[in-house]
Amino acid sequence: MERETLLTMLSIFLCGLALHLFAIWPGRVRGQTASRRLERLHWLALWWPTAPALTVAAWLCGWALSQPDPVPNHVGHLVFMATVPFTLLGGRALVRAAWSLWRSPRNYGIATMGLLRPQIVIAPELAQTLDERALRAAVAHERTHVRHRDPLRIWLAQFVTDLQWPWFPARRRFTDWLATLELARDDEARAAGIEGEDLAAAVLGSVRFQLEGGGVAATLIGQPSALPARIARLLRPLPENPPERELPYLVVAGGLGLVWSAATLFGLFCGERLVGSLLAL
Ligand SMILES: [Zn+2]
User: Residues lining ligand 1 (ion), CB within 5 A?
Assistant: First the structure.
């Protein structure tokens, strides 16, 4: 059997299994902290279940490097059947990702759209409805989405969540992140001089435009279920955001790099027996 074909099938099966085992991790982010840091913590929690799957992938790549091409082994019926559900789930996630790009943006009042070159779009009816201060607040909020390329981040987050379908904790990690994303962008706009009352007026004024929204967009409204708490927060003074140390991204990236390198070496020198047992199934 061709080595790359066997590697692909084993990767779909074992990485899919690892991803779905860790998809049920609750991933709760606790404690009060600044909105920006909270958003980053939720973002990391969203991606954390993919780390074990990538470790398995590194181990399999190490095993493949030690194999001739073509390999003498074949995939057993059991392993072949086990790849089918994960292949279907991956296909479903890809279709949904493509569909979300194609869907019409016409139902938004104001939103930021575009994965690579994000732009702010405003419905003319909404622009006429809002007063000048509220409109300025809405645009300031959307500019923060542009600055952070949030449509692209939302699209990627939706994709990784779809890969973990139908697990509820994965869905909840996604909606929790979306809610904290809006709080972080609100605070960023207010820190730049926007009044919370004006932003609250803009959010409420645009609610009716977004009820039938779709596609990939960083909207002004965000998660409808989080709106009451968000409006109440906007009407309070801007929370103190003391300077906090940045999340240790380099340490996390370095640690993951070490783990994946070790997994590759483990697969290279010790993968044969484990893969052989699996293929015998
Ligand atoms: Zn927003």
Answer: 182
Distance 5 CA to ligand 1 centre (A): 43
Separation of 29 CA from ligand 1 center, angstroms? Answer: 21
Distance CA 85, CA 14 (A): 12
Distance 233 CA to ligand 1 centre (A): 15
The pLDDT score that the predictor gives to residue 39 is: 93
Taking the centre of ligand 1 as the mean of its atom positions, its distance from the CA of residue 131, in whole angstroms, is 19
- Whether residue 58 contacts residue 263, with contact meaning beta carbons closer than 8 Å, is answered with yes
Residue 117 identity (one-letter amino acid) = R
Each residue's pLDDT tens digit, 61-95: 999 998 888 877 777 788 889 899 999 999 999 99
Peptide bond into 151 cis (omega under 30): no
At position 203, the amino acid (one-letter code) is V
What phi and psi, each to the nearest 5 degrees, are found at residue 119? -135, 155
On whether the CB atoms of residues 179 and 226 are closer than 8 A, the answer is yes
| Residues 101/102/106/110 CA torsion (nearest 10 deg) | 10
Q: How far apart are CA 128 and CA 142, in angstroms?
A: 18
Q: Identify any residues that bridge with 121 across adjacent strands, giving them in sequence order.
A: 111
Q: Is residue 265 classed exposed, middle or buried when 0-12, 13-18 and 19+ CB atoms within 10 A define those classes?
A: middle
Residues 163-179: tens digit of each pLDDT: 999 999 999 999 999 99
N-to-C CA span, the chain: 16
Using CA atoms, how far residue 135 sits from 75, 91, 132, 175, 228, in Å, is: 60, 41, 5, 26, 20
